[in-house]
Design a protein that fits this description.
56% helix; MacB_PCD; alpha+beta
Length: 408
């Protein structure tokens, strides 16, 4: 019997038992759809994270107080970065374009009858340049505001709506800890970043925040949490990182030349690689979990095919009696198993691609259809059908025609 005849007979047999064939394919359908969907969502998460980091600016460097080991040492906390360090970086590092020191806090903001717990950032006028932050209306505070400790603030887009739902926030006042601050600007919407809504942030001059809210927390000046730095170009990021490190080592070095650094320098690329590694690991884990259903689907195919062999014992005996060879029987049952797997894989692929497109339409994730994931899922499903279909097919091929005919 030729392959075409085996295909035709396998198709007729599967069509005659539509419900059983559909239920047999269900595991493969779910497995394929899950693998493709999980890989697509994982890749979408990677793209979304990359876009979020790029929105900060591609040449951004973050100088953070302490190292990982020092920050875990509660008894001897690390020397803090101070405002003077930021000034030194701005004036002494030639590969640096702008510097924006930053103090972080959280305060209850009150405007009339409306209150809102907001993230508070004290910084300088350079923040908008370094962190690629735009002002939608009004203005950001300038160097003069910082020098005179002006009581002015710029509101994130979301908190501006929460505090002033009935009209414009520009020119209005917001109270924090009993002090009034004039709203001089509304920031453009930026959305959430690493679980933090950037639009729920209030910005004020760093000198105002340190003198009125946080106080002086370092004997060497105004302590800062982060120094945001932008290099003169993307090509100079590594050079700027090296020069900043050398400058701060000179400023913070103790008498011990082997002392550890009291700061950590991270670039945008470092952060992007960390997030990329995390999302890649999660994608692989999710795809592996989803792939288990492919294995379950293969076992289901073997189960049903074994039942089919038992039900069709008389048919097998009759075919052998009229001249069908064991290889003919083996080929037919193997083809049936492969057809079930490939057809289930194709249907699952369609469902998975549809799910990805739906997620991309209703969420910020730019989930994409991975051709590699499709090829892998369909190939694995076809291989599973072949692997799990061989055993029932061999069982059918080994049937003694005399014994099989007695069952008629």
């Amino acid at each position: 019997m030729d392959t075409w005849e085996s295909l035709r007979m396998a198709g007729k047999t599967l069509a005659a038992n539509r419900l059983r064939s559909t239920l047999t394919m269900l595991g493969i359908i779910i497995g394929n759809a899950s693998v493709i969907l999980m890989v697509g969502v994982g890749q979408g998460a990677q793209k979304y994270a990359a876009q979020q980091f790029q929105s900060l600016g591609t040449d951004v460097i973050f100088v953070i107080t302490g190292t990982d080991n020092a920050r875990r040492n509660v008894i001897a906390p690390p020397n803090r970065l101070v405002l003077a360090d930021a000034d030194a970086i701005a004036t002494q590092v030639p590969t640096v374009r702008s510097v924006a020191p930053q103090i972080n806090g959280s305060e209850l903001a009150i405007a009339g009858n409306n209150t809102k717990r907001a993230t508070l950032i004290g910084t300088t006028a350079s923040y908008t340049v370094v962190r690629n932050a735009d002002v939608s209306s009004g203005r950001f505070f300038n160097e003069e505001d910082t020098k005179r400790n002006a009581r002015v603030i710029a509101l994130g887009a979301a908190i501006a709506k929460d505090l002033f739902p009935q009209g414009s926030a520009l020119g209005q006042t917001v109270r924090m800890r009993g002090t009034s601050y004039e709203v001089i600007g509304i920031m453009a919407e930026k959305g959430a970043f690493l679980g933090t809504n950037q639009d729920d942030t209030i910005f004020m001059p760093i000198t105002t925040m340190s003198s009125r809210l946080t106080g002086k927390t370092s004997p060497y000046g105004v302590a800062v949490a982060v120094i945001n730095v932008s290099a003169t170009s993307n090509d100079n990021v590594s050079a700027a990182q090296f020069q900043i490190a050398n400058l701060l080592r000179l400023r913070h070095r103790t008498s011990d030349i082997n002392a550890d650094d009291t700061f950590t320098i991270r670039t945008q690329q470092d952060a992007l690689e960390i997030v990329g590694n995390i999302t890649s690991a999660l994608t692989i884990m999710l795809a592996a979990i989803a792939g288990i259903s492919l294995l379950v689907g293969g076992i289901g195919i073997m189960n049903i095919m074994l039942v089919s062999v038992t039900e069709r014992t008389s048919e097998i005996g009759l075919r052998k009696a009229i001249g069908a060879s064991p290889s003919d029987i083996l080929t037919q049952f193997t083809i049936e198993a492969v057809i079930l797997s490939l057809l289930g894989g194709a249907i699952g692929t369609g469902i998975g691609v549809g799910g990805i497109l739906l997620i991309a339409a209703v969420s910020p994730l730019q989930a994409g259809v991975s051709i590699g994931a499709i090829c892998l899922a369909v190939g694995v499903s076809g291989g599973i059908g072949l692997f799990f279909g061989i055993f029932p097919a061999r069982q059918a091929a080994k049937l003694d025609p005399i014994v099989a005919l007695r069952s008629i």
